[in-house]
Design brief:
- This protein is of the alpha/beta class and 357 residues long.
- Strands 3-2-1-4-5-6-7 form a 7-stranded parallel beta sheet, sandwiched between helices. A 6-stranded parallel beta sheet has the order 10-9-8-11-12-13, with helices on both faces.
Length: 357
């Protein structure tokens, strides 16, 4: 079965959509033998490069983000004999376009979609964020899945991988956490695949307000473009700072960290799956509301929206977590039990089940 995934990633947009779609593609291909292809607006951009590095073909969609690309997408789905179309975009693609593709017999799947095109879905998947129940679902005839168990993460973040590594059956258990040993990294600082807003430098500056000596590990993604600014921030720091660019295994670094400072997005759920207490900086109010789901469960701290958060506020949140080992341990247990990292596997199973029906 050929399955077409429509998503984009770039320095400006970030790589979160690409990351979770690659996680789903791996499960569809490896577990179910599907032929997965990607349709992307910029076939030569950072997102497409990451997709090709994962071993997938990229078909170009030659329109800009303000133009409904439904016609081109329909033609592509037809020419590739696609049985399903998975959509994870934030652009002008319309509900009417997806309705037309669905009417041609293609299964429509949407991922974390807040627009009305979700109403054209056969299947739609969401993390357990408050916005889902607030949407108007009138006219929806598909199936909706929302919860911690549907978060799309790469296999390295799955709890069974942690259990195998630690020898414990429950990655959130005291036994598993104890077997991980003393973390080598005090604070993991990671702001996603591109960080166009410069949150990395802001966070490093905020950590300068803390008097305690810290081992800080900065992770920047493959689309990161603020190298000069980062070099300056690291040079000014009084802490011991290491930088990794697109490391082969982010999960390994996460599990070696006492806590993290991260931008809300896929990274926040990856940290939760690894049982890492985290303080979230959010790019938008919508991201802050989504982050609040983890905050309410005691699995992370929502510091606030970048641009309205002061360095003192971020430093205060970090100081609180670093100064209370018991709080961090409880947050780690709660986080690891919420997100087991097997959402991509479950989602792939549901898609293939729907195709076979």
């Amino acid at each position: 079965m050929t399955i077409l995934i429509r998503c984009d990633g770039s320095t400006a947009l970030g790589l979160g959509h690409v990351s979770r779609c690659l996680a789903l593609a791996a499960e569809l291909g490896d577990a179910h033998g599907c032929d997965v292809r990607f349709a992307m607006r910029d076939p030569e951009g950072a997102g497409a490069a990451v997709v090709r590095a994962g071993g997938y073909a990229v078909d170009p969609i030659a329109v800009d983000e303000w133009t409904d690309d439904g016609g081109a997408l329909h033609r592509l789905a037809t020419s590739r004999s696609a049985r399903a179309l998975i959509v994870d975009v934030r652009d002008a693609l319309s509900r009417a376009s997806l309705d037309a593709i669905r009417a041609s017999g293609v299964l429509i799947v949407t991922i974390d979609d807040g627009s009305d095109r979700r109403l054209a879905s056969d299947l739609t998947f969401y993390p357990p964020v408050p916005q889902v129940d607030e949407m108007d679902w009138a006219g929806f005839t598909g199936r909706r899945f929302a919860g911690w168990e549907w978060i799309l993460l790469r296999r390295e973040f799955a709890s069974d991988a942690v259990a195998r590594a630690s020898g414990a059956s429950d990655p959130g258990s005291a036994e598993s956490l104890a077997q991980q040993g003393s973390p080598a990294i005090d604070i993991l600082l990671t702001m996603g695949g591109s960080d166009p807003a410069g949150m990395t430098e802001f966070a490093l500056g905020a950590l300068e307000l803390l008097s305690m000596p810290l081992a800080i590990h900065v992770v920047v993604g493959p689309a990161f473009s603020r190298t000069c600014e980062l070099i300056d921030a690291v040079a000014r720091s009084k802490h011991a700072v290491q930088v990794s660019h697109a490391p082969a295994s982010v999960a390994t670094l996460m599990r070696a960290s006492r806590m993290a400072v991260a931008s809300f997005g896929i990274t926040a759920y990856e940290l939760a799956a690894c049982g890492v207490p985290a303080a979230h900086l959010c790019l938008t109010d919508d991201h802050a509301r989504s982050s609040s789901a983890l905050d309410r469960e005691g699995a992370a701290l929502t510091v606030g929206v970048f641009g309205r958060v002061t360095p003192e506020q971020l430093a205060g949140a970090v100081s609180h977590l670093m100064g209370h080992a018991g709080v961090r341990a409880e947050m780690a247990r709660r986080a690891a039990r919420l997100v087991d990292g097997r959402g991509a596997r479950r989602t792939a199973d549901e898609i293939v089940r729907a195709l076979r029906q």
